[in-house]
Design a protein that fits this description.
By secondary structure, the chain is mostly helical. It is about 45% helix and about 5% strand. It has a two-stranded parallel ribbon with strand order 1-2. Strand 1, helix 2 and strand 2 form a beta-alpha-beta unit.
C-alpha cells in the first residue's frame, strides 16, 4: 500500500489509490487494515462478491479473471477455505438474512462482531 501511495504522489497531478475490498469482505473483516482496506475511494464497497462477479461478466471481462479462485496469495489456501464458508453463503446471509447452517451463521456473526472496528474511522482525541 505504501508503494501505491508513493506512485500516486509521484504523478504530475497526484493520484488516488483504490480500496479493492467489497461488501462481503468488509462485513466479516476479511481484509488488512491499512493494506487492501486502505484507499482514497472504495469502488466495490457497496457490492457483494456475487454482485462483483455479475458486474465482471456484464462488462465482458475474461472469465479466467472474473472467476479466479480468490486467495490472499500467501497461504496457498483460497479465501473460502480460510474463512470456513463460501462467499455465496455469506452473500445470501448479508442480503437475505438466510443461512441454513447454524454454526456457519454463528461464525459469520462472530467475525462481523469482532471486526466492526475495521470499518470505523480511527478514534482520535478531540480538543475542547
Amino acid at each position: 500500500m505504501t508503494t501505491l501511495y508513493a506512485v500516486a504522489q509521484s504523478l504530475p497531478n497526484g493520484g488516488r489509490v483504490a480500496n479493492t475490498c467489497n461488501k462481503s469482505e468488509d462485513y466479516i473483516g476479511y481484509s488488512t487494515k491499512y493494506g487492501d482496506a486502505a484507499g482514497d475511494f472504495g469502488i466495490l464497497a457497496a457490492y457483494t462478491v456475487t454482485e462483483v462477479l455479475k458486474i465482471g461478466e456484464a462488462l465482458g471481462l475474461p472469465a479466467e479473471l472474473v472467476h479466479k479462485t480468490p486467495s490472499d496469495g500467501l497461504s496457498g489456501l483460497s479465501d473460502e477455505d480460510k474463512i470456513g464458508f463460501t462467499y455465496a453463503v455469506l452473500d445470501r446471509y448479508i442480503t437475505e438474512g438466510i443461512c441454513e447452517d447454524d454454526s456457519t451463521r454463528e461464525r459469520i456473526d462472530h467475525m462481523h462482531r469482532i471486526n466492526l472496528h475495521t470499518l470505523k474511522t480511527i478514534p482520535s482525541y478531540e480538543r475542547r
